[in-house]
Amino acid sequence: MKDKLKIFSGNTNISLAKDICKYLDVELSHAMVSEFPDGEIKVKIEENVREKDVYIIQPTSTPVNNSLMELLIMIDALKRSSAKRITAVIPYFGYARQDRKDQPRVPVTAKLTANLITNAGADRVLTVDLHAGQIQGFFDIPLDNLYAVNLFVDYFSKKKLSNMVVVSPDVGGIKAARAYAKKMNADLAIVDKRRKNDSESEAMNILGDIKNKNVIIVDDMASTAGSLVEAAAALKKAGAKRIMAAVTHAVLCGPAMERINKSDIEELAVTDTIPIPAEKKNHKKIKVLSIAPLLGEAIRRIHNGKSVSELFK
Asked: Distance of alpha carbon 121 from its chain centroid, rounded?
C-alpha cells in the first residue's frame, strides 16, 4: 500500500491529515500550497505521483473560498502530474446549505461546487455527514458519504445514561436522529421549529416524551448554534433532565460559543472534520472526537477495492 498510496493535504486541516496518515502508517506526501503576493493560490506537488492512488485531505471550511480553491488547484496539479486516481477527501463539504431552489432567483451552490470538483479532475469523493443526502446525486463521479453516528454512539454509551431520548432539532434531521436512537436503544423526539432567518430560529413544539429524561440532541452541523440552543431551551422548559448534544461539523462561528456558554447544554460532542482552535477544544463544554480512524479505514478500503458500507453494519 505504501508504494501506491499517496496522501496530500491542503492548509485547512493538516492535523487531521497527519492523524489519518498515522492510522494508515504512511507518510504525509509533500506539496507546497501557498499564495502569490496578490492572494492567488500557488501549488507545487513535490514528489512523483505518476500512476499513484492519490488522496487530498481538505475540508472546505473557514476560510471557505481559499479552502475550496486550494482543493481545486491541487486536483488540477495532480491530474497534470499523471496521478492514476484522485480522491478528494472532504471531511466537511462547504456550500452545502443551498442544495435546492427554495426561493426565486437563488443558486444551488452544492451542485455548483460538485461540478467544480468534478471538472477539476477528481475521480471520486469521500466525505462525512453531508448536510443533505441528495447532494450525493449532484456528483457524476463516485461518492462515499461516511457517518459519524458510531463514533458518537460509542462515546455516549460509555456514560451509561438511563432514560435516554435522542432529539432531532428540526424535522429535516429525523432520519439521522432515528439512526442514533436505534443504535442507542433510546426513544426519539423532535423539536418542531420555525426559522426566523439564516442564523436564528424559534423553537415551537416538542413531539415526544422528554420529561425527566436524559436528552441527546443530534445534528450534522452547528454554525451559529442558534437552532441547537433554542432546541435545548425548549427541551429544558418541557422538563428534560440532562441535555447533551452531538454535532459532526463544529463550524461554531459568530455568536456560537457565547450562546453555548449560556445554554442549557451540559456537553457538546463534536468531531475534528473542521480544525478546532485550542480555546474551543479546551472549553469545558466541548468534547472533540477524532474522525481520523473512520476516514483512514475508508481510504484503506477504497485503495484495496473493498466495501466502505461494511463500516456501518
From this structure: 23
Q: What's residue 282's pLDDT?
A: 87
Q: Which amino acid is at 27?
A: E
Q: Which CA distances in Å does 49 have to 83, 85, 200?
A: 5, 10, 47
Encode pLDDT of 163-172 as tens digits: 999 999 988 8
- pTM assigned to the model: 0.94
Distance CA 180, CA 188 (A): 9
For 117: left if phi > 0, alpha if psi spans -120 to 50, otherwise beta; the answer is alpha
For residue 257, report the phi and psi dihedrals to the nearest 5 degrees: -65, -40
Q: Are 67 and 100 in contact (CB under 8 A)?
A: no
Residue 5: all three cell numbers together: 498510496
Catalytic residue, chosen from 193, 196, 213, 280, is 193
Active site residue 79: no
Residue type at 266 in one-letter notation? E
